[in-house]
Amino acid sequence: MDELIATAEDYVAASNAHDIARIRPMLAADCSYRSAGVGQHDGTDAIMAMMQSFFAANPDVHWDARNYQRQANRVVFDFRITLASGTSSGREEIHFNEAGKISRIVVQR
Length: 109
Prior knowledge:
Layout: H1 3-16, H2 20-23, E1 27-35, E2 39-42, H3 44-57, E3 62-71, E4 74-83, E5 86-96, E6 102-108
Parallel strand pairs: 1-6
Antiparallel strand pairs: 1-2, 3-4, 4-5, 5-6
């Protein structure tokens, strides 16, 4: 299996488990996160704070991810997110740096 796809799948699994301690080492220090749902966050500490707040406010959130595709230094996949308020779908891009760390996350819903 492709190493970047495996990391992306692990990131989604850790997100579904709300395990930010498992997510933190996957992220590059200068990682950025962009999402219409939760805004823009730059740096690991800011992303971890956003995730902690998001998981606390959405304890039953779950992502069903599929169609993982490697495109150069990024992995793109489709997802369906389930929240207490309902479900929606979108596409996520996870970009990686040369060290294999997540350098950018872009969520489109």
